[in-house]
Amino acid sequence: MRTALVGTLNERLFRHRDEIHRIVTEHHATAPRVFGSVARGDASSSSDVDVLVDFTPEAGLLDEIGLRLALTDLLHVDVDVVASDSLRGEFRERVLREAIPI
Fold first, then answer.
1. Taking a C-beta distance cutoff of 8 angstroms, is the pair 2, 68 a contact?
2. pLDDT band at 5 (very low <50, low <70, confident <90, very high)
3. What backbone phi and psi angles, to 5 degrees, belong to 28?
4. Cβ atoms within 10 Å of 38's Cβ, excluding its own
5. Distance between CA 18 and CA 77 in Å, rounded?
């Protein structure tokens, strides 16, 4: 089940890659990367998709919220958006190590 689920999520990410990049750009962000259970290949039926982005200086809170909502709508799964500059310490190192560009 996990392999099928991860495959399905990865297929959706690949199939919608161009749209994801367009949405990310519209919300003043760049460099979308997936991390967490989907990137590690151990997602379950309750997993969300964790997306790491670099927000530009023009970005605000509404961009972050709008990006999360737009990606959730596109992918039909809960999406958590994390700003790369918000990460600290060992968690930052782990996320950056496992992050896969979309």
1. no
2. very low
3. 55, 50
4. 23
5. 18
Residues annotated catalytic, as ranges: 48, 50
Please name every residue paired with 16 in a beta bridge, in sequence order, or none if there are none: none
Query: How far from the centroid of its chain's Cα atoms is residue 42's Cα?
Result: 16
Structure tokens at 51: 């997306």
> What strands lie across the sheet with 79-83, from one edge to the other?
79-83, 49-55, 29-35, 100-101
Strand, coil or helix: what is 101? strand
Question: Rounded to two decimals, what is the model's pTM?
Answer: 0.90
Which residues have a Cβ under 8 Å from the Cβ of 75 and sit 6 or more positions away?
9, 12, 13, 16, 49
Average pLDDT over residues 27-34: 98
| Domain 9-101 superfamily per CATH | Beta Polymerase, domain 2 (3.30.460.10)
